[in-house]
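Late entry, written up from scratch paper. The run itself happened at the end of the previous shift, but nothing got recorded in the book at the time, so transcribing now.
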Amino acid sequence: QSLTRQIGMTVENTQLAEAKAEVELLRQIDELRSDLIANFSHDLKSPLGVIKFSSTTLMREDVDFGPDMQMELLSDIVSQTDHLSHIVEQILELGELGSSSVQLRLEPTGLSELCERVTRSVRRRSPRHEISLDFDPPEIVISADAQRIGEVVNNLLDNAIKYSPEGGHVRLQGRILDGHALITITDEGIGITTEDMHHIFERFYRGKNAVSAATSGAGLGLAVCRGIVEAHAGKIWVDSKRGAGTIVSFTLPTFGSHPEESL
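Output as recorded:
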């Protein structure tokens, strides 16, 4: 009888633990859903508002807008539509990266040339920041899908600038480490809290700080970066200290690191 009671108590405790775990899982799912809705509402409401305002303004018959004003309103519509398209593209890309259907066009790619091309575009968008490049050796050839890796570098540089609102120096470095290319992007921004560090590569997650609250973004950029890097058999990680800047690093295979590859 004692053994039977112990077995019964064990079964009951197991059932309670399973029920508690299920409740916790449902709570986390509900929290994720709430965060997703909040992020999308924030990120979609602003561009949609601009598009609606600009469109209805152009449709007014009681005001005669000059060519310059018309062009300004149309430019706003185009830029905000591009922003919405970018969000949709990121969602579609995440879905592709999360499945076995992702197709990479791997080819020998000069890392420094790729990074310089991306950096030129970023510099034009943010002249307040000094962006320097440093590669050792100068010519590092990776086996990569150049378009997707360019997207990773662009996203990481954008983040470095976004979270360095006072300007400052952003360093992009390339090295060879254990037969792989190691790329690091270092900023002098606000840094990342310990709490955020555990979640920054999660989909739809945005840091809980004033800069995140004041800037647009659905929390997809770093999740996309991780998916692309891991699809290349690389790794990505972050080192940061609140108020002391952030270092984002990722690795990629060098061309010729696989037996089937040859120049």
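Helices lie at 2-59, 67-97, 111-125, 146-162, 194-197, 210-214, 221-231.
(Scratch paper discarded after transcription.)
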